[in-house]
Design goal:
313 residues; elongated; 17% strand; 4-stranded antiparallel beta sheet; alpha+beta; two-stranded antiparallel ribbon
Length: 313
């Protein structure tokens, strides 16, 4: 083969190779493109999705181009039948129209693509001046707490040194007077729940003990060591102290008598009888307490100012 023939053959082969590469490059067709989000700013991640058709098989590139305007963080190629989804995630660091470098997808090259990045300062017509120092978060709360820490003890000292002392004494006296009454009601409720399990001795020991505590608080002397006979003799004074008739507290004497029979004679008091006596004690004590409070309110109203409660309040 002559030299001229060889040259002609080489030129023909180069032309054929160039034609094949052009056809290969043109074998990629973008059918649809989607951008998420539709608008982005500098340093916002953007996902660019392209649905393409290709006459050749595409694959995810092993190397990703490094553009000057930012980063291409990932490129994925997903086959969808006779089409492909090409997804790019880019992170731009400058605004404007940015061009994506050619990306080799194995059988074809994705080229000639661009996207727009906005700047947050584009719509501003003026720049605000320098501001002065700002208060740290929570400054107002800290100042308020400091004022309260200083002021509250001072106000409390002034209050308790004057009329506040008498007011506190009245409040404490009233609360102290209600303690035995509330304890008695709680004891009655507890005994009512456990009446099926408690012995008669335990039942009356608890009930009479709670009544003795209340009588001690109302009468102003110790009734805890008093006998049933002595307790019965104190009942008219208890009723009078509450503003009731002398005989109003008389039914409690039956409870004291039953307690003696259960504790000292070993009598087995029927459960029904014990429940009836619990109900009697509750109703009687509620009535006496209501009369006592009504009497105290009337006394304070007639005197024009609340009095310091005595031992019976």
């Amino acid at each position: 083969m002559s030299t001229v023939a060889r040259r002609v053959l080489l030129v023909a082969m180069l032309a054929l190779a160039w034609t094949s590469s052009v056809a290969l490059a043109q074998s990629l067709t973008i059918v649809e493109s989607v951008r998420l989000p539709a608008e982005s700013f500098v340093a916002d991640a953007v996902e660019l999705r392209y649905r393409v058709r290709s006459a050749v098989e595409l694959e995810t590139p092993l190397r990703v181009p490094e553009p000057a305007w930012g980063d291409i963080t990932s490129v994925r190629v997903v086959e969808r039948g006779d089409e492909y989804d090409v997804r790019l995630v880019v992170l731009p660091y400058e605004p404007g129209t940015l061009t994506i470098p050619p990306i080799d997808l194995g059988g074809a090259v994705l080229d000639g693509l661009s996207f727009v990045v906005s700047s947050v300062a584009e719509d501003r017509v003026e720049i605000r001046g320098i501001r002065g120092p700002q208060r740290l978060p929570g400054t107002r709360l800290v100042v308020l707490a400091a004022v309260l820490v200083v002021a509250l003890p001072l106000l409390a000292a002034l209050y308790f040194a004057g009329p506040g002392r008498a007011a506190v004494r009245r409040i404490l006296a009233r609360r102290q007077a209600r303690v035995p009454y509330r304890r008695l009601l709680r004891t009655i409720d507890q005994l009512e729940k456990n009446v099926r399990y408690d012995t008669a001795r335990h039942f009356y020991t608890e009930l009479v003990g709670a009544v003795q505590d209340l009588m001690t608080g109302r009468l102003g002397f110790d009734c805890r060591s008093a006998t049933s006979t002595e307790l019965t003799s104190y009942l008219p004074a208890l009723a009078a102290q509450c503003g009731a008739e002398a005989r109003a507290a008389g039914p409690l004497a039956k409870i004291f008598e039953a307690a003696d029979n259960a504790k000292f004679a070993g009598a087995q008091i029927r459960r029904k009888t014990r429940l009836e006596q619990l109900q009697l004690c509750r109703e009687l004590m509620v009535e006496l307490e209501s009369l006592r409070r009504r009497r105290l309110r009337a006394r304070r109203s007639s005197s024009g100012s609340p009095e310091v409660a005595d031992a019976g309040v």
